Amino acid sequence: MNLFTLLLSFSFVILSLFVSIGFKLGLGRDLIITSIRATVQLLIIGYILKQVFGFGHPLVIVLMLVLMIIVAAKNAAKRGKGLPHIFWKIFLTIAIVETITQAFLLGLHIVPPTPQYIISISGMIIGNSMVIVNLFLNRLKGELEMRKEEVILILSLGGSVKQSIYSILKQSIRSSLIPTIEGQKTIGLVQLPGMMTGQIIAGADPVQAVRFQLLIVFMILSAASLTAIILGFLTYPSLFNQHQQLDIQAWE
Questions:
Q1: Fewer CB within 10 Å, N side or C side of the chain?
Q2: What is the pLDDT of residues 219-229, one digit of tens each?
Q3: Is the residue at 165 inside a domain?
Q4: Does residue 7 share a domain with residue 82?
Q5: Secondary structure of 59-89 in the HEC alphabet?
Q6: Are residues 130 and 35 in the same domain?
Q7: Is the dihedral of CA 175, 179, 180, 186 positive or negative?
C-alpha cells in the first residue's frame, strides 16, 4: 500500500463525518481527532519498531515492553482515579500477565524469540489487558454504588473484608470477561480476526494462519482471565480503611 492509497482510505472517515453531521450526532470532532491521532501514533510506532527489529538487543525489547505497559497502565488508571496506588497495581497486573504469557510461549518454543514475535504478541496481550482493566474497574465501581449497603451490613454482622466484597468482586470479574468470551465465540463464523486476515493477505497458507490465530485466541482468553483476577485481588483491600470500613469516597 503506497501513500496515495492510504490517503484514499481516509474517505471512510469523511463518510463517517458526513453521517455524523447529517444525523447531528456530534461526533465530527472526535472522528477527526481519533483519525489524526491514530495516524500519527501508528506512523511513529512503525518507525520505532523498524529500528527495534533491526537492532534486536534484548534490553531494547524489554524497554519497549515496559514503555507499552506504562502507557496502558496510565490510560487504564483513569477509571480508578481516587483509588490508592491504582497505577502501580495496574502496572503490576499487566506486567505479571505479560511475563507469564511470554514465559509460556517462549519456554515451550511455541513462538521464536525474535523481536517481531515478542513485541507483536505483547501488544495484543497488553492492549487486551488494558481493556479488561477498564471494564473491571467500571463494573466494580457500579456494583459498589448499588450494593454499598450490602457490604456495610456484612461488615456490621462480623464478616471479614473479603467476605463483604467477594460477591461484588466475583461479579465484576465475570462481567469484565463477558465481552472477550462472547467475541471469541463467533470467530470464523461472523468475523475473521485481523491477525489471520493479515497473514492470508500476505500469502500465508489459510490453515497455518488459522492455527496461529487459535494460539492468539487461547492466549487472549487466558490473559483476560488473569488480568481481571489479579487486579481484583490487588484492588479490593484499598476499598477499606485501617478500621475495616468501606471507604470509597475518593473514588466516587
A1: N
A2: 999 999 999 99
A3: yes
A4: no
A5: HHHHHHHHHHHHHHHHHHHHHHCCCCCHHHH
A6: no
A7: positive
